[in-house]
Specification:
Two copies of one chain form a homodimer. By secondary structure, chain A is mostly helical. In chain A, about 50% of the residues lie in helices and about 5% in strands. Chain A is built from six helices and three strands, in the order αααββαααβ. Chain A has helices at about 10-25, 35-40, 45-60, 85-90, 110-130, 135-145, and strands at about 60-65, 70-75, 155. In chain A, α1 packs across α4 and α2 packs across α3 (about 45-60). Chain A is elongated. The interface between A and B is large, with 60 and 60 residues. The structure holds a DNA duplex.
Amino acid sequence: MEVTADMKISTRVELGIVALADIAVNSEKGNTVSSAEIAERQNISQKYLEQIVLGLRQGGFVKGQKGSHGGYVLTRPAEKIFLSEILNALDNNILADTYEADDDQENNNIRASVNSCLWGNINNYMRRFTEQMSLADLIKECQNETTEKKNYMYYI
Amino acid sequence: MEVTADMKISTRVELGIVALADIAVNSEKGNTVSSAEIAERQNISQKYLEQIVLGLRQGGFVKGQKGSHGGYVLTRPAEKIFLSEILNALDNNILADTYEADDDQENNNIRASVNSCLWGNINNYMRRFTEQMSLADLIKECQNETTEKKNYMYYI
DNA sequence: AATAAATCATAGCAAATTCATAGGAATAAA
DNA sequence: TTTATTCCTATGAATTTGCTATGATTTATT
C-alpha cells in the first residue's frame, strides 16, 4: 500500500477483509461459507472474490473445502486474527518493518530523514494499530456503528 | 497514497518534501535556490525535479524567479508550512477528509465499516500528525538525527 | 458411475498510475 | 545578445490494479 499513492485502501485489501469478516460471521455454527454466498451478500464479482480468498487461504486464515456443499471456514477464531496479519498477507508492502537508510550516505541526509521521521512514524502507528485490532474487534465495531466512537490513545 | 498498495511513499511526494526542505535550508539569506543546485545536492534528475517543484509552486509554497541567477524561495517561513499541506498539494488522494458511506446501503454494512473503522482511523492519525508537523520541525529532526527519538502521544 | 457444486490455479487484458525523459517557450540578468 | 533559469507540455516505458475468463481438481449426492 502506498501512502502514496494515496492513503486509499486497495480494493483487494478491502475486499479481503470484508470477505474474511463475512466468513467469520456466517460460519458460526461450523458450516462452510461459499464464495458464491459472499459474492452475493457483499455484491462482488464471484471470480474476483475467489482470487482474493485465495490469498486469504495462502495466508492461513481460512481453509477451503472443495466439492458440493464446500466453502470456507476460519482456521482460528476471529479474536486471534489481527488486521496486521491480513494486511501483510494481501499486500506485502503496506506494513514495512523498518525504513532502512539509503545507500549513498553523503548527500541525502534530508531524504533519509523524510522517510524515517514522517513515514516511519505513520507506519509505526499503522502497525501498532493493526496489531492490536482483531477481526473480532472490527466486526464488533460494525455492529455498534451507531454508538459513539471510542477514543484510542497510542504512544508512538 | 494507497495504504494499499502499500504503505509506501510515492517518489513524487518524497522528493517534493525533500526539495522544499532543501530550498528552506539553502535560501536562508534570501538568495534563490535553483533546481540545478537541488538536483545536484539531492542527486535527482533535474528535469524530473522541475516537474515536482512545479507542483510546489502551484501549491503556493515557493515562488520562482526566472532568468539568470533565478531560482526558488519559500513564500512563507518553514514554520508555517505543514506537511499536510504539502501532501495535499502533491498527492490529492493521500489525505481524504472523510470516508463517505457506499451508495447501496443494504448489503455492505461490513464493507462500509472496514473503511470507516480501519482506514478512517489511520487516515485521521495521519492527518493530525501531518497537520501539526511543520517543515521546520522536519528539518529540525533531520539535524537531530543522532539524538534519541521523542515519543509522541496522540488521541485519535 | 454420473452429475453437480464447489475450490483451486493461472492466463490475460484494459485502464490507470508512476517515474521519468525530452524539447522548447518565456523570462530576466549580465 | 547571450546565458541561465523557470515554466509548460508531450511522450513513453514500466508497473500496478481491477477484473474477466477458462478450466482443472475435488467432493458430496444421487
